[in-house]
Amino acid sequence: MLEVSNLTKRYGRTLAVDGLDLITRPGEVLALLGPNGAGKTTTIRCATGLARPTSGRIRIAGHDVATEPLAAKAATGFVPDRAWFYPKVTARELLRYVAGIRRQVNADARIAGLLERFRLSRHADALIESYSHGMRQRLAFCAALLGDPRLFVSDEPMVGLDVQGHREVKKLFRELAADGRTVILTTHTLAVAEEIADRIAVMDQGRLIALGTMAELRAATAQGDTVSLEDLFLLLTEPSDEGATAADPGAMSAVNERVSGERR
Amino acid sequence: MTLVGLRLRGTLRSLTARPVWLVGALLLLGGVTYGAYRGVRAGVEWLYAYPLIDTIAPAVTQRSLEGLFLMLMAAVLFSVLVASIGTLYGSDDLEFLLAHPTSSARIFGMKVVELFVNAAGLPLLFTMPVLAGVGAALDAPPLFYLASTLAAVALYSLPVTLGSLLALVLVRFSPAGRVREVATAVSISAAAAALLGLRALRPEQLLRLDPEDTEAFETFLTAFARLEIGWLPPAWATNASWAALDGRLHTGLMVLLLVGGLGLVVTGVLARLAFARGWVRSLDAAPAVRHRRGGRAPAWEKLLVRLLGAAGAIVAKDVRVFTRDVQQWSQVIVLAALAGVYFVSLSAIPVPTQQFRDVMGAMNIAFVSFIVAGVALRMAYPSVSYEGGSYWLLQTQPVRPRELVLAKFLFVLPLMVSLAVGLGVAAGRVLDLSPTLAFGAPLAAGFSALGLTGLAVGMGAAHPRFKYTNPNELAMTPGALAFMGLALVYATVVTLILARPAWTALRQPSVTAYWSSAEGLLVLAALAGLTLVAAVVPLWHGARHLARHEE
Prior knowledge:
By secondary structure, chain A is of the alpha/beta class. Chain A is built from ten helices and ten strands.
């Protein structure tokens, strides 16, 4: 669904993403983890059209983001970590606007359904300027789902959501995956990633340092079956005395080898 | 000072981020400044050398300077009233600044400095070469430059202080829940009233003279030289500058500095008492406004989407935002006031002969273009940047940048065309122009609206600024200055193209079929071609640039 080949992104002299290769499969939830500044958000920004790669290639549903941006974007739904919307329109009007941009003229019923699902029906005709952060975040989910995307990308989706919202979003991600769609999320809430992700990708300093299921990551780091993702994450990203990460290089390269194999 | 320094560093960084445009804008500004300096210097030297009136030349120069100070002070007052609430209470950085243990009066002070730069920056930039021109022509000592500059800064600070005081009072007393909306609407209405009020002084009374009568011209100058407005601050500034020519410090400068300083102290005390509380008050939104339509999209919105696709959806959204955002719709009040002043001014000009009326009609074509350029700077240039923090939504949707640029163009165009053609038709009626110009004036105005709207939207798209603390900043960016420069070039070329039909109208006022003649059609084709290039090339360039833009 999403194919990232040798993606590099520089901001001036800063190397944000360094030769990233990543492939996601239809019907999976992939959690993209990493410490602050690891390059997760930059990767997502490049995939969603918010930033242009310095080099490398990104394909979504077979469409190159650089050469076929409209088709790639039509297949994608995106929820940012802080969703900012026009304060002087209502939620319903905003969703109609998104539908209009996507050339969906008769989207009223679908909009009403999404508003209902995300508990916004009661506030659907209020101006967005009166919304709380959590309500805006739920509205962002409605907007992202309106285009019926095959790839759903979310940057820190749980920020600002209440407990009920957390549960709804987790359920939504599993439903989307069950429906054959791909979900990619970045998060610092490792418990969420552990609970819902099929695979976990760990980035550090712009590079992918691990990718696999929980079992594969445990095996690669020579940890027992009960070790938590938090412990694994710290093991992978905390530099050792020599500056290298703690993952077994042989085992990690075997995991990453498989990633490259899938791409080929 | 730390806050102002921080702001200055940020501004400097954003300016130097695009060095080519910065150099271009500076060159343009330098050219205009140098032109003003040379023009004023030559004008004053000519006046002092003019026979018969050389004895009153100092008085005429002094009155002219007073007139300039008065006009620019009024312009500053107008800008301040339009922008004060947005800058002082609507800036996004206030939340961050007021959360820190810094005196609210100090933060208010920084915002007042920002307001001064935004409202008085350009008038001050225009005043400097004028003063330099006068100084050079009259061989002034260094004290003249120092005193006159100080006087100009103090003079333009008066309307800024007045506008800030008014903002403090308005926010304190506007009805709860609608503070920002009501305060902005009242402040902008005050600006429109100030504009109309100034017009009501009927300065054209001074111009009632026969243009061919030399004696009348001299009589006029003599009368003009006697016309003192000693009780108004512009006269204090002029007297202070004039005394400095002889190496004297005039009490006018002291009075100006004293009044300016006192105003700042009073504003500071009031800000300490009311600013932070007023800001919190302005945050209280009214109970959520509801727009119930049974959940169905209105027919006009559906039609726009069917006709224009994504661009139609963007236009529909812009219509909603424009009509609900007081900062945006209140600009229409300003537009109406401008149109009113222009219409009244045209009717008041003495037009004894058809030829003279047609000369005025030809000049009107240039004036309308300049007015349209000024309005486009405020309405069309920032239209892409108005997407602000919501731009991510468009960037991640399957919409082409050219659709966004087209939507902005289509949204602003009706307002601009209505204003321009309205002024053109009004000029034709009021001046009772000959048929050639009566048709040419609204036609040229319509073309100007098309060309300048395209130029403004396109350049705004090529130089977007989605992160701003308040929208008033957008008209002061290097891209905005470059737009004004190109708009003036466009307006000049339109005027030159129309010089030919204007000349024909002057020589043969009774000609009715000029526009269907070969020459008339050629002029029309030239106008259409120029307008097409002026509109389409920047729109295309803006869309291309926007496609490469990343925040």
